[in-house]
Amino acid sequence: MFAPKNAHYSSIYRWIVKYADMIGKVTDKLPVTAGVELMSDEMEYKRLGRQNWFVDTLDTTTRFMVSSGFIQSRTNEELIRILRSARRKTNGSIKVVTTDALQGYPEVLRKTFGLHNSYTQNPRIIHNVVKADVRGFNHKIERLHNTIRDRTKIMRGFHGSLESAKAIMKGMEIYYNYIRKHQEIDCYPYELAIPKLELGKNRWLELIKMSKIHINGNHYKLP
Questions:
Q1: 26 φ, ψ (degrees, to nearest 5)
Q2: pTM for the predicted model, two decimal places
């Protein structure tokens, strides 16, 4: 997103919060053509001197960040909300969910993807637990997190409200999925995950236009 050279940093900050929130309301509703494996992991962040977390899910086939959330604590309720969004957007295609050894994940997956529940209408999934070593999770999602850290390390922690932190990290999700070309797949993740979505050269502007359609009371529909 480009800004006038004379724009004050506080104005740019407000624009990021405003438009990330606007665009996110639309992109969160777009269905995703995903593979069979989803990865979920957490990143620790400091906000106002306190420990917060950024939790996200990644489709390993398209490298698309399916869902995410900036949260104050890693409660099961918060993880369920993020994983439930991922399940809804992937429409039953996920067969394997890979996570670290966080104790809450089995319960979270039971309540979202139907893990170990023969009575659910959802297909049973495999929970692949990868224990982090001294090098970290060390998988595709860790490479994603390295990208996010490179973009957010200059912030030296979030100094604003929880809502502004959520909007900034939603902006990171949008940037990763729609604006930044992925080196391994040599395209933008949305081009594989949402192939019917057509964005022009100025993808930020196109996404803002989509969000304005939503604000005006019309639901954005893919071609």
A1: -90, -50
A2: 0.86
Q: Which residue has the tokens 């399916």?
A: 66
* pLDDT tens string 73-129: 999 999 999 999 999 999 989 999 999 889 999 999 999 998 765 444 555 788 998
For domain 9-215, give its CATH number from 3.30.420.10, 3.30.1460.10, 3.40.50.360, 2.60.410.10: 3.30.420.10
Q: Residue 46 belongs to what H/E stretch? A: strand 37-47
Which tokens belong to 99?
Answer: 């996570």
C-alpha span between 197 and 177 (Å, rounded): 12
Residue spans per domain, the chain: 9-215
Give φ, ψ of 185 to 5 degrees: -95, -5
Beta-carbon-side half-sphere exposure of residue 24 (alpha carbons within 13 Å): 23
Tell me the two tokens of residue 67.
């869902």
Identify the helix (H) or strand (E) that includes residue 3.
none
Angle between helices 203-215 and 9-27 (to 10 degrees): 70
